[in-house]
Amino acid sequence: MKPVSMMLVTAVVLGSVLVYGYVHYARLSSEQVDLLTMQAAQGLRSSRIQVQAAAYAGNARAMRAEGLYELAQKDATSVNQGVALLSEAAKKGEPEAALDMGRLYFHGRPGERPDYQQARAWLPSVAEKLPAASYYLALMDKNGLAGPVDAGKATKELILAAKGGVTDALFLLGNAYRSGDGIAKNEGEAVRCFQEAAMHEHPGAILALALAYQHGEMGLPHDERQANQLFALAHDAAQDPPRMP
Question: How far apart, in whole angstroms, are the C-alpha atoms of residue 19 and residue 159?
Answer without folding.
Answer: 48
